[in-house]
Amino acid sequence: MKNAQRAFLLGLLSALFFAVTFVVNRMMSLEGGSWIWSASLRFYWMLPFFLVIVLLRRNLKPLLLAIKQKPGPWLLWSTIGFGVFYAPITYAAAFSPSWLIASTWQITIIAGMLLAPFITKNYQSSNSRNTYIFSTIILIGIAIMQIQALESVDLSSLLSGFFWVLVAAFAYPLGNRKMMQLCDGQLDVYQRILGMILCSIPFWLILNLYGHSTGHPAPTDNQLLQTLIVAIFSGVIATVLFFSATDMVSKDEKALAKVEATQSAEVLFALIGEILILKSPLPDTYALLGIVLVIIGMSLHSLKK
User: In this structure, are residues 141 and 109 in contact, taking their beta carbons and an 8 Å threshold?
Assistant: First the structure.
């Protein structure tokens, strides 16, 4: 199996585990849990997991040396790639159902392509016209799915949720791509993730201080357990799978766009999870049409040579 095909399959599998984030965050929001703890606890839980992995692989010292050499870029892109990405995603859960957040999140598919000319030196696009057409099909499907949301979510909440997910959708590929450039193949996936967690900790501590000063409730035992579930399924398993997939094709813009497009499957997985776990109603005709378009667009991406 070629690297691009293997990377695509890993990206698709990561989407399944990433979908846990949207469903569990929505569950915590409905139970009254603070979005600040929903966001920060995920990374506090992730820290010991990746620290143990990197220590067992005897790779901690090279990572610390790499951070020491360029502390500014590490802090900046880790904060953007993890902090500015995940805090808005959890905040948006207060406004919209999980499947709607997951669908809006798919803007990240074209965000990476739009950002590439500005963050890659001597950029030469290898994306064909079909790549953009397939991504547009996915986005049209997402737009159609949002029609159903207007029947159950008021416009101001829909716009608020959309704005914060839009911020996250650009922050994630920006942070991920800049960190790949910064590491330049010198660090493995586990080292890169651990480094980004460590360098994003100041952001989470500041956010926690803000939450404490503004009266956000402390995390309950249930929220601690739920964030642990998110940390394992989404933070550890999904992140390793997705970062491994992007590392495989980091020099191939077309293949990288395909891997990022696999994240559209999160919509389907989140929708199924919300129906089964949160007992949400079945999607209407518009939502089903949107889902079909998302599947078509993603399938075309995977079949395109």
Answer: no
Rounded CA gap, 249 and 145, in Å?
Answer: 31
Largest CA distance in the chain: 55
**Using CA atoms, how far apart are residues 40 and 84, in angstroms rounded to an integer?**
12
- Measured CA to CA, the distance from residue 17 to residue 248 in angstroms comes to 19
If we measure between CA atoms, which residue out of 217, 179, 212, 181 comes closest to residue 198?
179
- Continuous segment of H or E residues that includes residue 50: helix 35-56
Q: What is the DSSP letter of 120?
A: S
Can you tell me the distance from the alpha carbon of 171 to that of 265, in angstroms, rounded to the nearest whole number? 20
Residue with the bigger pLDDT between 211 and 121: it is 211
Place of tokens 């999904």: 238
pTM: 0.84
Kindly give, in sequence order, each residue whose CB lies less than 8 Å from that of residue 121, ignoring residues fewer than 6 positions away: none
Residues 6+ apart with CB under 8 A from 290: 103, 141, 142, 143, 144, 145, 146, 147
DSSP SS3 for 137: helix
pLDDT band at 148, cuts 50/70/90?
A: low
Q: Are the C-beta atoms of 93 and 168 separated by less than 8 Å? A: no
Helix, strand or coil, per DSSP, at residue 79: helix
Tokens for 228, please give them. 């642990």
Closest among 302, 188, 262, 301 to 14, alpha carbons compared: 262
CB atoms near residue 170 (< 10 Å): 19
pLDDT in tens, 213-227: 998 888 989 999 999
Among candidates 43, 163, 148, which has minimal Cα distance to 95?
163
